[in-house]
Design goal:
With 152 residues, this protein is of the alpha+beta class. The chain has four helices and six strands, in the order H-H-E-E-E-E-E-E-H-H.
């Protein structure tokens, strides 16, 4: 085999190995590529008990209950579905009903999401497209200065 053919075989072998490695990484990470799931996506996906997830949406109006000193229970909704969430700890300052939230934790066998961290979002710009579209269809969506003035 000539030197040129050996080089071509080496390069093609390296590219094949790189492509295979990239494919394996993408397959392994396919469930973690999405930053968070909305309640409707979570209902369709049906994750197994104990799987770590992030869910996002709006804190449902009238769902916030304080249980004890630092435990809260609330519902996260995308106006189609809702997920019951329980959290023990200090809530972010921006957390309130009707506000966007991302919760990270596990889904229990009782279908209650047990969050170990809560992130409050300051406006709807960080909301998943599906949730924003559902809110726009229902006339609940607030944009720009209107949202800032109504939120205070």
């Amino acid at each position: 085999m000539t030197r040129r053919k050996r080089r071509l075989v080496l390069i093609s072998t390296a590219l094949t190995a790189l492509g295979l490695a990239l494919g394996l990484v993408l397959i392994a990470l396919r469930d973690n590529i999405v930053f968070f799931y909305g309640p409707s996506e979570l209902a369709q996906r049906a994750p197994h008990e104990g799987q770590r997830l992030r869910i996002g949406g709006l804190v449902k109006q009238g769902s916030l209950l304080h249980e004890g000193d630092s435990t809260v229970r609330f519902a996260v909704t995308d106006t189609k579905q809702e997920v019951e969430v329980t959290y023990t700890g200090v809530l972010p300052d921006l957390f309130r009903e009707g506000q966007g939230v991302v919760a990270e934790g596990t889904l229990g066998g009782d279908k209650i999401f047990h969050a170990d961290s809560i992130l409050a979002k300051h406006d709807e710009r960080y909301m998943p497209r599906e949730v924003a579209d559902a809110l726009k269809k229902q006339g609940v969506w607030r944009e720009g200065a209107e949202a800032a003035s109504n939120g205070k």
